[in-house]
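=== Structure Prediction Worksheet ===
Name of assembly: unnamed complex
Input type: mixed (protein and possibly other molecules)
Chain count: two
Listed entries:
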Amino acid sequence: MAETILKTEHIAKAFGAHQVLADVGFQIGSDEIIGLLGPNGSGKSTLLNLISGFGGADAGDVTFLGSSIVGLAPHQIAQRGLVRTFQLPSMPHRMTVREVLRAGSRERAGLLDAFRRDAGEDNAEELLEQFALKSVAHQPASSLSGGQKKLLSIAVALRTHPKLLCLDEPTAGVHPLLRGHMVDLLKAINRRGVALLVVEHDMHFIHELCQRCIVLDRGSIIAGCAPCELAQNERVVEAYLGKSLERQKVLA
Amino acid sequence: MFEFFVHVAVMACLYGLLALSLNLQVGFAGLVNFGQIILFGCGTYAASIAFSHQLGPLAGIALGVVFALCVAAAFARLGRNLGADYWGIATLAVAEVLRILANNETWLTGGAQGVGGIPLVFAGISRPVGPLLTLGLCLALLLAAWWLCSRLTASRYGLSLKLMREEPLLAASLGYDLSRLKIQTLMVAAVIAAAAGFVFAHYTTFVGPDQLVSSETFLIWAMVIIGGAGTHLGAIAGAFLLQFVLAFVPFVKDALGLPSEYVAIMRMTLIGGGLLAFLMWRTQGLIPERLGETRRG
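=== Predicted Assembly ===
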């Protein structure tokens, strides 16, 4: 593994009496693609929110590129290079797909930049092509299908030149034909030096994309292994399918 | 009649500036400002204080800019932890507090009596040349503000404002500092509104707290909604349309042989009815915002 880009230690979070995360710690290398798995309600999205500044942890530390990002606002974390997408991306009604994509880049987006003649480099058209959004570029972003919104949210996040991109269920609602394309795109993004943390339920997608997986169950990490080892991991199988018949018999 | 037309046109230009200022906030940045009239008051009272303390018009302009920036900063500071609707109510409260202050701090503002005798913009120039020159100045200011707002909203900065208006969470997740965007937008809008106030004070030669009542804010809102929020031309069109319609209400009253008190009622009905009609049947206003207009971003 290359140098550590993100490190979490002893993260804990409770909503009232419900302990959502307990003593969660892991790290991600700057060249890795990590899958974050777990059954519904295991705390994946909460963990992503805490890492990206959209929620505060009760305890623990999050270090990004060597410095703590606990207590920073989401925009400050994004400015450092940790950018996330949302599980249900909501897109603007009164902006076109192209406008949303252009708005993704903060370069030359200052107040005084409005009076410059040169708008700077722009890879928006290239991204529209890559993410198969060229044909809908003139449409309101809110009119896209769920899958297209997912693609747009990844493309917009890439406009910020992230160092770590956290994707919350990127394939949910995406057409099966596009999933393969998305694997290729994300691998290409990773080759350009962007680490990826992917929250996902689609095991086939995880197998194709990720080098390593972290599995959460009821707020705790129960496994950290390669995707091909998941099916052999008893705790993972138990978390997803419940206790095996044989074990139940022994317990009985 | 000619001078009356010039007067209505001057007032339409000044309201046009206020509508452009509000449109930049609400139409582009999604900032629901119900205290707009106090930004105008920053200009009127800067002119009044500069006059009553014999500081000169240049000091008045500087004072207006400082007042406007301070009120804008206060509004933005309020907005840090409030949702858009609550923030709107807070701006209304701040505007009312400042109006009451203007009403009571007689030593500084002239109190409820206000300050009269503020020199005309083109003092010493005979009619109708003086008012025509004032109209020219107001038109120039309106065009300059239109250019400024268009330049801002057609750039990538304008896209960031729209993103903040539409999807603030997405904007924050992409690294946009929403507090900073809000304060910048409010400051630009406040200076435009204060400029209108400053010229207004030197045009009517009187400044008083009654000019800052909240119904004036809602008149500016009606102009923006009827003209079309999110388009600069719409805001200006709304201001001119309402100003001219309201100016000709007394003539309609005379033609129908109605008593004088009907003028105010007819004006209120026109504003309220027009606002309601547009909100129900043409929410996009006379000149709707067009998608994909931002080309320079």
